[in-house]
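Case 254 in the screening queue. Each case pairs one protein sequence with one candidate compound; here the compound is magnesium ion. For every case the pipeline is the same: read the inputs, emit a complex structure as tokens, and attach any notable structural observations.

Predict complex for case 254.
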Amino acid sequence: MEKIKSIAVTGKGGTGKTVVSTLLIRLLAERFPGRVLAIDADSAMSLCYTTGLKVDKTVSKLRDELLGMRQARDQLSNGPTKDLMRTILAHGDGFDLLTMGRPEEPGCFCACNELLRFGIDSLAGDYDYVVVDGEAGPEQLNRRVMKSVDCLLVMADMSARSLQTAAGILEVAKPGENSNIDVKMAGLVLNRVRNDQPKEELLKRVGLEVFGELPEDAEVNKYDRDNRSLFELPMDSACPQAVRTILKKLIPEF
Ligand SMILES: Nc1ncnc2c1ncn2[C@@H]1O[C@H](COP(=O)(O)OP(=O)(O)O)[C@@H](O)[C@H]1O
Ligand SMILES: [Mg+2]
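Case 254 output:
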């Protein structure tokens, strides 16, 4: 298996992308401190809450600033865009967080977006692991954040609709199918699995292979309601353990 460096989490809204991304970030940052870049690519911006970090700068704000200032734009074209990206990072325990903010509006100065993307790519080059908490749906698989992703985790809960969305994403993500982004491997992660809901039949119907699964955990949901960082969740509880199992499969040295 090729070495996994970037992991992107996608799937229908509410299926647990942010929960899984946060636990991936926390586990990787514990194991490889300082070598992890987290990217919040969802315009709803959730990672700042689940990681407990204060975020006031985003890539979209940076874009607005650059578009409004001719001088800054020239500076961007000439100077290293990576350094500019560094100025908007939030710093956590063992990881850094880049927040995308709003997507660009149609007609936005295109070269600027290209440069910002280049900046993100070269910033990512300074880390060993990159975790992207993505937007919902196959449209996420564009080049807004990165040109390639080593491992795409597609989230689904036990609903037929989220599985259909997941199947659509996995279809688009097939190697060679998508000219916008290069995905090396992709798999389904089931969330909120309860023993009283037999899943085999549902899965057989959509014909997808499962990559990992997380149980329903009332504690996780309570943290969300109380707006508490998932960095305070006991690591021996069920969801972190389930994410650890996924990481062990993906990263041999984990
Ligand atoms: N395994 C789980 N057990 C209990 N609640 C969960 C679990 N996974 C996610 N949730 C809850 O479901 C909601 C949606 O999760 P979230 O990660 O924000 O989804 P997404 O980022 O895909 O929109 C949140 O309130 C979260 O606390
Ligand atoms: Mg989310």
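Case 254 observations:
- The radius of gyration is 18 Å.
- Strands lie at 6-11, 36-40, 90-91, 95-99, 129-133, 148-156, 182-193, 210-215.
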